[in-house]
Design brief:
This protein has 414 residues and is α+β, with helices and mostly antiparallel strands. The chain contains 15 helices and 14 strands. The strands form three sheets. Strands 1, 3, 4, 5, 6, 7, 8, 9, 11 and 12 form a ten-stranded mixed β-sheet that branches. Strands 2-10 form a two-stranded antiparallel ribbon. Strands 13-14 form a two-stranded antiparallel ribbon. Helix 1 packs across helix 12. The protein starts with a helix and ends with a helix.
C-alpha cells in the first residue's frame, strides 16, 4: 500500500509538471468518450421512437393480408384483397394473445383543391376498431375523427399545401377495382399532425366510404393487429397463420419486423457507424497516451537513470509510467462520463427538434419533430472501463522503452 501511494504521488507530480501535454491528452479522452456516449444515447432514442412510431402509427405489430397482396401492392393494391369475413374477424377477436384488431382498406389517390393536386395514400378505417391498434387519433390538432359518410381526415402538411381547413372539401381522385376513374368530394372534418412522416402522407376516411368509392364493399387490404404484452410478433405470425388455415382461411401474416425491414437495415448500418466512431475515439486516446508517455520517457532520461541508480528496477519504473497512464485514463474517462451524463440528461428530457435541422427531409427513419435520447447505463459503464483499459494498455510499450534506459546514460546528461 505504501509503494502504491509513492507511485501515485510521483505519477501525479510528473503529470502536473507537464500540464499542457496532460491537459491535451485528458481532453482527447474525455471529449471523445462523452461524444460517443451522447451519440449512442441519441441513436438508441431514435431507434426506440422509430419502432414505436412504426407500430402505433403505420404497421401494427402484425398484419394479415390476402396471399400475394404484398407482391402486387405497389402496382395494383386492389387486385388481391382479403374478404371481410365476420368468422375470420371473430376468430381473431377471440384470440387471447390479440389485444386489438383494425380492418383497413388502402389505395392510391390524388388529392386536390380543384386547382392543385398531388398523390397520397387513402386509408379506409373502422372509426372504432382502428383506435385499438393505432394512435393516429391522438395526434388530432383540429376538428374530429371521421365517423361516417364521405368524411376525411388529412395531415396538417396537406392542409397547408392545399390551403384547406375544417369544413372545406377535398377532391379525391382514384381508380376503382374495375379500372374506372372515380372522383369524389370529401368533407374535411379533422386535421392531424403525427410524428411519422409516412402517416402524414395519408388521408383517412371511414371504411364503408372507402369500399364504396373503389367498388369493393366486402373486401379489405389488411387486418392490422396489436398483440398482448410479451407476445413475440414473429412467433405469433407463424402460429396464427397455421391457426387461420385450420379454420379454412388462406392469409399471409407479416410481423412488424418484416414490414420495417428497410428501417432495420438503416439501424444496422448506424450501429456499424457507431462502432467505427468508437474505434476513432479509441485511436485518438491511444495516440494521445502513447505520445504523452513516450515524450515523458525521452524528457526524463536523466531522472529514469537516477532512479535506477538508486535501486529502482525496470518493473518499478514500468509501474510508475503505467500509473501515470491510468491516472490520465481515470480522470479523462471520469470527466467524459460526467459530460455525457449532462448531455444525456438534456437529450432524454428536452430532446432535439429535427425540423429545425433538416425540416421535413426523409432520412429513412419513420420519425419527425422532436427526437429524444435514451439512457444507456450499460454503455456508460462499459465505455468508462474500456477507455481506462485502453489508456493503461497504450502506456505499456513506451513505459517499457523508458525503463530500459541504462543509469550510465543518465549520468552523461548530468
Amino acid at each position: 500500500m505504501g509503494n502504491f501511494k509513492y507511485y501515485l504521488t510521483l505519477a501525479a507530480r510528473n503529470l502536473w509538471r507537464q500540464r499542457r501535454r496532460t491537459i491535451l491528452t485528458f481532453l482527447a479522452v474525455s471529449l471523445g468518450l462523452a461524444s460517443f456516449l451522447v451519440a449512442d444515447s441519441l441513436m438508441k432514442g431514435l431507434d426506440k421512437q422509430s419502432i414505436d412510431n412504426l407500430i402505433t402509427l403505420e404497421t401494427g405489430e402484425l398484419r394479415l393480408t390476402a396471399p400475394g397482396y404484398i407482391d402486387i401492392k405497389e402496382e395494383d393494391p386492389l387486385k388481391k384483397l382479403l374478404p371481410k369475413d365476420q368468422k375470420l374477424l371473430a376468430l381473431l377477436a377471440e384470440d387471447s394473445e390479440i389485444a386489438g384488431l383494425a380492418p383497413r382498406l388502402s389505395f392510391p389517390v390524388r388529392v386536390g383543391n380543384g386547382w392543385d393536386e398531388y398523390p397520397q395514400e387513402a386509408v379506409g378505417i373502422d372509426p372504432v376498431k382502428d383506435t385499438e391498434v393505432f394512435k393516429v387519433k391522438d395526434y388530432l390538432v383540429e376538428g374530429r375523427w371521421p365517423e361516417a359518410g364521405y368524411e376525411v381526415l388529412i395531415s396538417r402538411d396537406t392542409a397547408k399545401i392545399l390551403e384547406l381547413g375544417i369544413g372545406d372539401y377535398l377532391l379525391m381522385t382514384t381508380r376503382t377495382k374495375s379500372g374506372a376513374f372515380q372522383a369524389v368530394d370529401m368533407e374535411i372534418v379533422g386535421i392531424v399532425n403525427t410524428v411519422n412522416p409516412n402517416t402524414n402522407n395519408q388521408v383517412f376516411l371511414p371504411l364503408a366510404a372507402a369500399q364504396e368509392i373503389v367498388g369493393v364493399p366486402d373486401f379489405l387490404s389488411q387486418v392490422d393487429l396489436r398483440l398482448a404484452a410479451g407476445v413475440d410478433a414473429r412467433e405469433k405470425a407463424a402460429s396464427l397463420k397455421e391457426k387461420i388455415a385450420g379454420a379454412g382461411f388462406q392469409v399471409e401474416t407479416q410481423p412488424w419486423q418484416e414490414m420495417a425491414e428497410e428501417f432495420l437495415q438503416i439501424s444496422k448500418t448506424k450501429n456499424a457507424f457507431i462502432g467505427i466512431f468508437l474505434m476513432m475515439i479509441l485511436l485518438i486516446a491511444t495516440v494521445g497516451i502513447v505520445n504523452s508517455i513516450l515524450l515523458a520517457t525521452i524528457e526524463r532520461t536523466r531522472e529514469i537513470g537516477v532512479l535506477k541508480a538508486m535501486g529502482m528496477t525496470e518493473g518499478n519504473i514500468v509501474r510508475l509510467f503505467l500509473v501515470e497512464a491510468a491516472l490520465i485514463g481515470l480522470l479523462g474517462s471520469g470527466a467524459g462520463l460526467a459530460i455525457a451524463l449532462a448531455g444525456e440528461y438534456y437529450m432524454v428530457n428536452v430532446g432535439l427538434d429535427m425540423t429545425e435541422i433538416i425540416g421535413n427531409l426523409d432520412v429513412g427513419y419513420p420519425i419527425t419533430g422532436l427526437i429524444k435520447g435514451a439512457w444507456n447505463p450499460g454503455t456508460m459503464v462499459g465505455g468508462f472501463f474500456f477507455c481506462l483499459l485502453v489508456c493503461v494498455l497504450a502506456g505499456i510499450l513506451p513505459a517499457r522503452y523508458g525503463a530500459k534506459k541504462e543509469p550510465i546514460e543518465a549520468l552523461r546528461r548530468v
